[in-house]
Design goal:
The longest helix is centred in the middle third of the chain and has 29 residues. Helices cover 67% and strands 0% of the residues. The chain has one domain: Up-down Bundle (Ferritin). It has 251 residues and is mainly alpha-helical.
């Protein structure tokens, strides 16, 4: 089994979860209503925990301890998509990112529940159940806001338009796609994107929104290769500020 291929897959998944988890946690105390404040905080905690489970598998494969991997790398060593590192913006953008990302994430873990790499399959079976609630939350708010007032509909359409090419960047293929597929570890990013499109389209239509014209599709790539916006370095410095002071401390 190609360990390098598995590590690449695990890093991009774990980094996505770690970064969007921290972005979502920034809504704590700022949610538009109390229930949403609690919901976003809870989902953020889930995602950081899920990232930790993947970092533990990486540690078993010879990488550094989970906390050091999570908090001691600079932005150019991270493998997250650029989509998850963008600032939260207004609540419309955060909800739309939540919707587009979590549908992809749930499908990814559903696929990986059948992976030939047993440690990942075991973790995926647990995580995919947690993500059902995240997706349900996202679907509810996208449909509600898309069918709300003229302002809420317009804002959600703008958020979808602005998110779309970043969202397509989530499916940036790695260097080991063929190996992952041939060894039945993961079906690949293109297969995931196809399923994602099939999943999100009915909800976007139900929300009375429109997917951007295919002629405008230009996936924003590079995140999987360590190319990021300036926002990510600011975030990783903030995330690791305390840990980097004494990385070997016992908590």
């Amino acid at each position: 089994m190609n360990v390098t291929a598995i590590k690449e897959l695990l890093y991009k998944m774990a980094d996505d979860l770690l970064i969007i988890g921290h972005r979502n946690s920034e809504w704590t105390g700022l949610g538009p209503i109390l229930e949403e404040d609690i919901a976003f905080s809870s989902m953020a905690q889930d995602k950081i925990g899920q990232a930790g489970a993947l970092f533990e598998i990486l540690h078993e494969l010879g990488e550094d301890e989970a906390d050091k991997v999570a908090f001691m790398r600079d932005a150019n060593k991270m493998h997250c998509s650029q989509f998850v590192e963008l600032p939260n913006g207004e609540y419309d953008f955060s909800i739309m990112r939540h919707f587009l990302y979590d549908h992809a994430d749930q499908l990814r873990f559903e696929m990986l529940a059948n992976s030939s790499f047993e440690p990942l399959a075991k973790v995926a079976k647990k995580i995919k159940g947690e993500l059902k609630y995240h997706v349900f939350h996202a679907n509810t708010w996208v449909v509600k806001l898309g069918n709300g007032t003229e302002e809420s509909k317009a804002r959600m359409q703008t958020a979808l338009n602005e998110s779309w090419n970043y969202a397509l960047g989530m499916f940036e293929a790695g260097d080991f796609e063929k190996e992952l597929q041939s060894e039945n570890i993961f079906d690949g990013e293109e297969a995931l994107k196809t399923r994602w499109m099939a999943n999100i389209t009915p909800f976007i239509e139900k929300a009375n929104l429109k997917i951007p014209d295919v002629k405008t599709w230009e996936p924003i790539l590079g995140g999987r290769k360590g190319y990021h916006t300036d926002y990510l370095q600011q975030l990783v410095e903030e995330m690791g500020e305390v840990f980097r002071v004494e990385p070997d401390a016992q908590w």
